[in-house]
Amino acid sequence: MGFLYSTAVSTLLCLAAFAVFSAHAADPEEIRDFAPPPAGTPLDENYFTSTRLRNIRPVNQGAFVNVTAVNVNVFPALSGLGVSNALLVYPPGSVNVPHTHPRGTETLFIIEGTLEVGLIDTTAPVPVLFTQTLQKDDIFVFPRGLVHFQINKSQKTVRAYASFSSTNPGLVSLPRTLFGVNVDIDVLTKSFQVPPYVIKALSAQQS
């Protein structure tokens, strides 16, 4: 049963990557140089400055990446400019689960460490997986809406800086989207052709 479970889980996650369809909405064109600050907020150099990424320390030393986003929700000066950023810190062995950004293309710049990345191209009739090992100062691009992931297989912490072509690119996590919202188990078992216990185990991890 262990082999069956492992094989089924691997197959399920691969198929899940292909099953998520993302909207391709883009930021509206800005007809001003920048959005003015809210009433009562002075328009000075502080309005154009974010200190959110200063002295970032990982809060999660477990299996998952630590992401500190700098988007329009926390940095209003980005409104209408079509860009946002994030700092990603990957403890040893951690993963950034398969996901998409439905509203923005991402470029990932490696600040320190070595990181394994993957991108699934769904433009061809049969999806194609591209993988790469990134070193310090490398850049990898994840086109808008395509499923991608990263994993730190090293014994050292990896730090990376992401830039997005949207003020709020959005995030669709495949594990949480498929297994964390109580989709009818019959839908998932029939869609992925796996036993119900596989779906229940994956759903329990997302609860």
UniProtKB/TrEMBL annotation:
Protein name: Germin-like protein
Classification via Pfam families: Cupin_1 (PF00190)
Residues binding oxalate, per UniProt: 96, 101, 106
Keywords recorded for this protein, A-Z: Apoplast, Manganese, Metal-binding, Secreted, Signal
Taxonomic path: Eukaryota, Viridiplantae, Streptophyta, Embryophyta, Marchantiophyta
Listed InterPro entries: Cupin_1, Germin, RmlC-like_jellyroll, RmlC_Cupin_sf
Signal peptide residues on this chain, from the entry's feature table: 1-25
Binding locations of Mn(2+): 99, 101, 106, 148
